[in-house]
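During the reporting period the student researcher (J.K.) took over the structure-prediction task from the postdoctoral fellow and processed the backlog of single-chain submissions. One of the processed entries is reproduced below for the supervisory committee.
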Amino acid sequence: MTKKRIIVACGGAVATSTVAANRIEDLCKEQGIPVEMIQYRVSEIGANCDGIDLIVTTARVTKDYGVPLENGMAFVSGVGIEAAEEKILSHLK
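J.K. obtained the following structure tokens:
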């Protein structure tokens, strides 16, 4: 299986995106899905989404980048995490 490239973004590209990226990476390992996690600020997504399979943000984003986009706040808050995991896996399988 080819490595899936995932952007995880938040307002500052540090705190919440790191928490979400680590959880998503663990989830993908459990499912046997090879991934490359890339962290950006939300403002940097547009310039960096070539060859990306999925974008997960912990900030509210409504722009269409032509790539599947999911909200990753569940990975930070713990609320609705199963649903978020299912959505992410559906894009990667």
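The committee noted the following: The mean pLDDT is 94.
J.K. will present the remaining backlog at the next meeting.
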